[in-house]
Amino acid sequence: MRLRNKPWAQKLVLEHPEALLNEPDPEIKIPWQERFADFSKPLAIEIGSGKGQFIINWAKQHPEMNFIGVELQTTAAGMILRKKLADQIDNLQIMCADAANIALYLPPKSADIIFLNFSDPWPKTRHEKRRLTYKSFLDKYKQVLKDNGHIEFKTDNQGLFEYSLQSMNNYGMLFDFVSLDLHQCNSEIYKQNIETEYEHKFAERGNRIYCVHAHF
Description:
It is a single chain. By secondary structure, this protein is an alpha/beta fold. The protein has one domain: Rossmann fold (3-Layer(aba) Sandwich), CATH 3.40.50.150. The protein has nine helices and eight strands. It has helices at about 5-15, 30-35, 55-60, 75-85, 100-105, 135-145, 160-170, 190, 195-205; strands at about 20, 45, 65-70, 90-95, 110-115, 145-155, 175-180, 210-215. The chain has an eight-stranded mixed sheet, with helices on both faces. Helix 1 crosses helix 4 (about 75-85). The longest helix has 14 residues, at about 75-85. The chain is globular. The two termini are about 30 Å apart. Belongs to the class I-like SAM-binding methyltransferase superfamily. TrmB family. One of its GO terms (cellular component) is tRNA methyltransferase complex.
């Protein structure tokens, strides 16, 4: 969903290059070792972080890890940045960037988890290549993830969920966890679940939340 432009967000983004990479050049290597106090910690990446509720709470609850939130919209990235600065979250970096370049922004085999939360379903067939679980994106995730790394995907969109299962399966991925109704599941995964803004809204309406964890 496109957010209304907020001039303060653009200003904040430009004022804090130490915390947020704004449209980085994919041809220039990013010095992640300088952007985190300890880049050897396990790394989690959320692609499409929205307003940041999920990635902010994950980073707060897991100081033993590093986090990168990737968000295309400047306004949304500014909202995440404002929360990060207010709460002084040192283990979170933000990128206002296109996820299609993710394998150029990060070192190979550097990430432990990639989160895909309530991604745009792009329901029209002609837009299939834009879906974040399309095979070309899976190629990029495989480059970035460690050999024991995995993807965690959540959506309320049944069509996108079914497509994603098929896409991952066709790619040769293996499924560690699949739920057709995460919020009615008694598994440890649900007990540890952190909701996104969309997830909270959709669950309150009674929508099912679909979830899959998978690895290459």
